[in-house]
Specification:
Chain A: Belongs to the cullin family. Chain A: This is Cullin-3A isoform X1. Chain A: Keywords: Isopeptide bond, Ubl conjugation, Ubl conjugation pathway. The complex is a heterodimer of chains A (about 725) and B (about 450). With about 725 residues, chain A is mostly helical. Among the domains of chain A are: about 25-145, 5 helical Cullin repeat like; about 150-300, Cullin Repeats (5 helical Cullin repeat like, Up-down Bundle), CATH 1.20.1310.10; about 470-530, no CATH class; about 545-640, Cullin, Chain C, Domain 2 (Ribosomal Protein S5, domain 2, 2-Layer Sandwich); about 655-735, Arc Repressor Mutant, subunit A (Orthogonal Bundle), CATH 1.10.10.10. Chain A has helices spanning about 5, 25-40, 50-65, 65-90, 95-120, 120-130, 135-150, 150-170, 175-190, 190-220, 225-245, 250-260, 265-270, 275-280, 285-295, 300-325, 325-330, 330-350, 355-370, 375-390, 400-415, 420-435, 440-455, 455-490, 515-530, 565-575, 580-590, 595-605, 650-680, 685-695, 705-715; strands spanning about 545-550, 560-565, 580, 610-615, 625-630, 640, 685, 720-725, 730-735. A 3-stranded mixed sheet of chain A has the order 1-2-6. In chain A, helix 9 (about 175-190) crosses helix 10 (about 190-220). The radius of gyration of chain A is 48 Å and the shape is elongated. Chain A starts with a helix and ends with a strand. Residues about 1-10 of chain A have low confidence and may be disordered. Chain B has about 450 residues and is mainly beta. Chain B contains 5 helices and 33 strands. In chain B, the strands form 9 sheets. Chain B has a 4-stranded antiparallel sheet, with no helix packed on it. In chain B, strand 5 and strand 6 form a beta hairpin. In chain B, helix 3 (about 60-70) packs across helix 4 and helix 4 packs across helix 5. Chain B starts with 6 loop residues before the first strand and ends in a 7-residue tail after the last strand. Classes of the chains: A mainly alpha (about 725), B mainly beta (about 450). The interface of A and B includes residues 46, 51, 110 and 118 of A.
């Protein structure tokens, strides 16, 4: 009946029908039956009930529109039973409290399932269309409100749980199964119940606990021990979550431990006296370092803290290393130290820092920083290679050679002035090739290939030219001897290496006077060579040659002396004289005086190699000195190699000279770069040119802005560029 | 005695039924049988010889017991379908009955299951299939709701304003969009209970923090609980609104760009793979057709097409459009049911028409209904006058045609809950097409 019909009632004639009247007591009676059944269920007394009858009764109530009565009856009855249960739980003594709570929870769950079975029809029809809470959810909500939130249970439950966790943290054994059941109950009641009634407080108490504990630890432990303890605590909490907490709590509780035990003490730990990060690095404590990495990774700013300390320590030690005056005396040792340092940190990053890219970058930038603090690093690295390729690689397997070369390349990559390295490398390579001192052609070539891949074809084209010259010279000599074999007879054997100008680091040297037999031979070769190659010019680099001399000393000792060309010229003079003064020698040979001094020094002053004697006996060569053959010369070897006293490192003026040549060579490169850039950009302002030129050249060297400016000015003078007439900072390319 | 442990005896309304626990287990835990034989109730052990009394009609029990035994439903013609449903509801196995009634949807095996005649006056506006086999039908300002048993529920209206579109959020909830009544705030869009017809809430449009009255047009829903509607407000509120289905709150608004018509769009379609909304405004609402994809994240229109500037002939005039994400294309249809295709991966393409049904021309009925398109699991459906064509395969070959002469032209159709509903324009009648369950062998 709706309202509009009622208004018109007066005009309506009632149809002849009996209103179907349901027994007014029907609903009450039926509900009584169901209520009784619910009570029996809660009393563990359900075996006498008929499921079919109860189901039918509940069905009928809903069918006859008593759904609301049924539903509110259910809420009332269940509430009463739960209040009873709450009382029993409250009465439980001490430890039995949780057990009682758990038991009642299980009882309630079972009863709830059975009630839901009976009321299934209501659950399916009445509840969704009337937007009521379904029976199962209703049961959980009532349990929450009447039991868990009852004033005498709520705080007691929380305190009990927290107390048990505290006990477990201090090493006691607790009933984890019971804990799991109770926590599971809170989770079943909804995530908000778990969070509000337990998790929130749990996290607060944990934070307090770990704040205090970490304070104790940091006062009495060293860094390594502290980290071990922190790691153990972290693992314990993770285990606790997996054993009896909601898995979503894991990140929350680990955050608490991380914050209290790590983040709050990070700087103190890293800088701890005698056991902090720097000590760990020095002592290669891979395990401790790994632990620190893994723990610090978990907190904000943790890894940068480690990285910064590592970087500054590395820069400091690196700086000491490259400026250590002792180390500078021995370039090989110097480079070896760099390599050792690199190996050490590579290993640390690999073993402890899980090959973290950011750490590798920090390592690289540190090396780049301090290697370039010493301007002689390029020279030293080349010297190191020289040493290795001369003798250091004997008996070393091919793979190990590769490893060493790769490591050298790595240092090479850090160099800013790669062109300086190239200069030295060329010099050292030339010496190796000309003196036939290189041990392995393969190793030489392998390094050239590496340089080529690193720096491109231009970088190595001249170096490769040197190898070609060596090969061509061999062929030329064969041709020479084939052509002159008969003519030459028993004159000395001449070996000429024809070096292409430009490919080799030749110095414009004053030719010395060769002994007569040699100069005749040289002339023959010259005419042979120029005869086969027209349009070439040949000049002698006597400062770079070597000679083998057969000598017989006073008591008939026969030796073969391996000497430089200069030394040969000096010694040959003694074939026709017993005693010669410095001046006489100088006049006869015309060897430049600095070279002559060195040459005489090596012949007369080196113990065991002194084929000459001089007066007066002293370490240095003076212009007034006199020289004569050392008749008493002995050596247990037949062949004696007389080295030239050459400082392996360059002398100061030589260094200046090399430097100057490097600077000279850079000029055209800078100019070429400027022109390339301007050609494509047409117009560019000053700062951008500087930036682009620097960028283009940085694979070879770090261009000096002042020098770039000079080159720009020079190009303007030569009409490659012009300044913009309105904006003086702009340059314009003139095609 | 040789009685299997598995055996169960029922006395239903005085008639004895012997069956097995295995058969009853097919009913599932959430049924009377599931609860009855749960260990809590302690009924299965020790009592296997006693009978379980159930005070219900034995004839229908027999039908339902057979359903549990075979998974198939056979109702003798002298028995009432409605009563069967009621019995099934009592036992908690109504879902079993529904899934036995018709099979998984296949456009090429459809069979006309029923026609339902309503009492609404005038032309139908829209029919929308519900997720579980029910449907709702919009006529004028009313929406009539039918459950899957085709029982009619209390009708829905939104302030008795003219309904433009309707749609199901879930089996319990229907959204309807309606015209506004000037100055009153009536109309717009509302969410209703499918079973009781009660209005739960209205969806509001806010512009500069003020609630505006508006006319809601086409609707679309996304799986992440968003609701889209074309909106036409009083002044600035032209565009596509976005609401949260769960809270009913407006969460976004795509204002209409100049020269484009979003607020009057006829069709919206959410493309989940592209995270875009297809919006189509078509003739005759506008002189020209506009189809575009909207990206709400950056308020851009990554793809669009319109026939502005193109010579308009009837053969080229787009009447409906649907995006097909699998082939990254948009299918359109003209008033002669020729299909056309556009590539979604290429911007500003043209329509590739396939003039398949040119023969149809000249056979137009007095009151034609223009084509509508629908896509369902790789099958394309197009309604035209009194029939629906089914197209399959990569080249969209015509494979089936559904036709029923009673009721006049089909003005709308919808597929859902494994059923196809077709609404006719002349009489207030709609057809239900179902796929029969597969043959026995």
């Amino acid at each position: 009946m709706n309202s509009s019909n009622q208004k018109k009632r007066n005009f309506q004639i009632e149809a002849f029908k009996h209103k179907v009247v349901v027994d007014p007591k029907y609903a009450d009676k039926t509900w009584k039956i169901l209520e009784h059944a619910i009570t029996e269920i809660y009393n563990h007394n359900a075996s006498g009930l008929s499921f079919e009858e109860l189901y039918r009764n509940a069905y009928n109530m809903v069918l006859h529109k008593f759904g609301e009565k049924l539903y509110s009856g259910l809420v009332g009855t269940m509430t009463l039973h739960l209040q009873e249960m709450a009382k029993t739980i409250e009465a439980a003594q001490g430890n039995l409290f949780l057990e009682e709570l758990n038991r009642k929870w299980n009882d309630h769950n079972k009863a709830l399932q059975m009630i839901r079975d009976i009321l299934m029809y209501m659950d399916r029809t009445f509840i969704p269309s009337n937007r009521k809470t379904p029976v199962h959810e209703l049961g959980l909500n009532l349990w929450r409100d009447n039991v868990i939130h009852s004033s005498k249970i709520q705080t007691r439950l929380l305190d009990t749980l927290l107390e048990l966790i505290q006990k477990e943290r201090t090493g006691e054994i607790i009933n984890r199964g019971l804990m799991r059941n109770i926590i599971k109950m809170l989770m079943d009641l909804g995530s908000s119940v778990y969070q509000e009634d337990f998790e929130k407080h749990f996290l607060e108490v944990s934070a307090d606990f770990y704040r205090a504990e970490s304070q104790d630890f940091i006062e009495c432990c060293d860094c390594g021990d502290y980290l071990k303890k922190a790691e153990r605590r972290l693992n314990e909490e993770i285990e606790r979550v997996s054993l009896y907490l909601d898995s979503k709590s894991e990140t929350k509780i680990t955050n608490v431990v991380e914050k209290e035990m790590i983040a709050s003490h990070m700087l103190r730990l890293v800088h701890m006296d005698n056991s902090g990060l720097v000590n760990m690095l020095i002592d290669d404590k891979y395990e401790d370092l790994g632990r620190m990495y893994n723990l610090f990774r978990r907190v904000p700013n943790g890894l940068p803290t480690i990285r910064d300390v590592m970087t500054s320590h590395l820069r400091e030690t690196g700086k000491q290393l490259v400026t250590d005056a002792e180390k500078l005396k021995d370039p090989v040792e110097f480079v070896q130290c760099l390599l050792n340092e690199k190996d050490k940190y590579d290993k640390i990053i690999n073993l402890a820092f899980s090959n973290d890219k950011t750490f590798q970058n920090a390592l690289n930038s540190s090396f780049e920083y301090f290697i370039n603090l010493n301007p002689r690093s390029p020279e030293f690295i080349s010297l190191f290679v020289d040493e290795k390729l001369r003798k250091g690689l004997k008996g070393v397997s091919e793979e190990d050679v590769e490893t060493i070369l790769d490591k050298v390349m790595m240092l090479f990559r850090y160099l800013q002035e790669k062109d300086v390295f190239e200069k030295y490398y060329k010099q050292h390579l030339a010496k190796r090739l000309l003196s036939g001192k290189t041990v392995s052609d393969d190793a030489e070539r392998s390094l050239i290939v590496k340089l080529k891949t690193e720096c491109g074809y231009q970088f190595t084209s001249k170096l490769e030219g040197m190898f070609t010259d060596m090969k061509t010279s061999q062929d030329t000599m064969q041709g020479f001897y084939a052509a002159y074999a008969a003519e030459l007879g028993d004159s000395p054997t001449l070996v000429v290496q024809v070096l292409t100008t430009g490919s080799w680091p030749t110095q414009p040297s004053i030719t010395c006077n060769l002994p007569a037999e040699m100069s005749a031979l040289c002339e023959k070769f010259r005419s042979y060579y120029l005869g086969t190659h027209t349009g070439r010019r040949l000049s002698w680099q006597t400062n770079m040659g070597t000679a083998d001399l057969k000598a017989i000393f006073g008591k008939g000792q026969k030796h073969e002396l391996n000497v430089s060309t200069y030394q040969m010229c000096v010694l040959m003079l003694f074939n026709s004289a017993d005693r010669l003064s410095y001046k006489e020698i100088e006049q006869a040979t015309e060897i430049p005086s600095s070279d002559l001094r060195r040459c005489l020094q090596s012949l007369a002053c080196v113990k065991g190699k002194n084929v000459l004697r001089k007066e007066p006996m002293s370490k240095d060569i003076g212009e007034e000195d006199a020289f004569f053959v050392n008749d008493k010369f002995t050596s247990k070897f037949y062949k004696v190699k007389i080295g030239t006293v050459v400082a392996q490192k360059e002398s100061e003026p030589e260094k200046q000279e090399t430097r100057q040549r490097v600077e000279e060579d850079r000029k055209p490169q800078i100019e070429a770069a400027i022109v390339r850039i301007m050609k494509s950009r047409r117009v560019l302002d000053h700062n951008n040119i500087i930036a682009e030129v620097t960028k283009q050249l940085q694979s070879r060297f770090l261009a000096n802005p002042g020098e770039i400016k000079k080159r720009i000015e020079s190009l303007i003078e030569r009409d490659f560029l012009e300044r913009d007439s309105s904006d003086r900072r702009l340059y314009r390319y003139l095609a | 005695m040789g009685i299997q442990k598995d055996r169960v005896r029922f006395n239903v309304g005085g008639k004895i039924f012997d069956t097995s626990a295995t058969t009853l287990a097919n009913a599932g835990r959430n049924s009377l049988f599931g609860a009855m034989f749960d260990e809590n109730w302690d009924l299965q052990s020790g009592h296997s010889t006693t009978e379980h009394f159930i005070d219900r009609n034995p004839d229908y029990f027999a039908v339902l017991l057979d359903l549990l035994r075979t998974g198939e439903l056979y109702l003798p013609s002298n028995m009432s379908e409605k009563q069967l449903y009621r019995e099934a509801l009592f036992y908690g196995i109504l879902d079993h009955v529904r899934s036995a009634k018709w099979g998984p949807f296949d456009g090429n095996r459809l069979r006309l299951a029923r026609s339902v005649t309503g009492r609404a006056p005038g032309d139908g506006t829209a029919i929308r299939a519900g997720p579980d086999g029910g449907c709702c039908v919009a006529h004028g300002s009313m929406v009539h709701v039918y459950d899957w048993m085709l029982e009619v529920h209390p009708p829905i209206n939104l302030d008795y304003q003219r309904v433009n579109d309707a749609g199901w959020i879930d089996p319990e909830s229907i959204v309807i969009s309606a015209c506004e009544r000037f100055g009153t705030g009536d109309g717009g869009m509302g969410l209703f209970s499918a079973s009781t017809g009660e209005r739960r809430y209205k969806f509001h449009v806010s512009h500069e923090n003020q609630v505006k009255s508006y006319t809601a047009g086409a609707l679309s829903f996304s799986p992440d609980y968003k609701l889209f509607s074309s909106c036409k407000g009083r002044s600035n509120e032209y565009g596509i609104g976005v609401w949260d289905q769960v809270t009913g709150k407006q969460i976004d608004f795509f204002y209409e760009p100049p020269g484009w018509s979003l607020g009057e769009a006829d069709k919206l379609q959410w493309l989940h793979g592209n995270n875009c909304l297809l919006v189509a405004t078509l003739f005759p609402r506008k002189d020209n057709c506009y189809i575009g994809l909207l990206d709400f994240r950056d308020k851009s229109m990554p793809w669009s097409w319109s026939d502005v500037g193109a010579p308009i002939t009837d053969e080229k005039r787009v009447r409906d459009a649907i995006a097909m994400e699998e082939s990254s294309s948009v299918c359109v249809v003209n008033e002669y049911e020729d299909l056309g295709f556009m590539d979604l991966r290429r911007a500003a393409g043209s329509v590739r028409w396939s003039s398949r049904s040119r023969l149809m021309k000249g056979k137009m009925p007095d009151e034609p209904c223009y084509p509508k398109l629908a896509l369902h699991e790789g099958q394309l459906f197009s309604s035209m006058n009194d029939s629906i064509s089914v197209f399959c395969g990569q080249d969209w070959v015509l494979t089936s045609r559904l036709r029923r002469t009673y009721g006049g032209s089909i003005c709308d159709f919808s597929i859902g809950g494994d059923r196809l509903f077709a609404l006719h324009s002349e009489e207030n009648v709609f057809d239900i097409w179902e796929t029969p369950s597969p043959p026995i062998i």
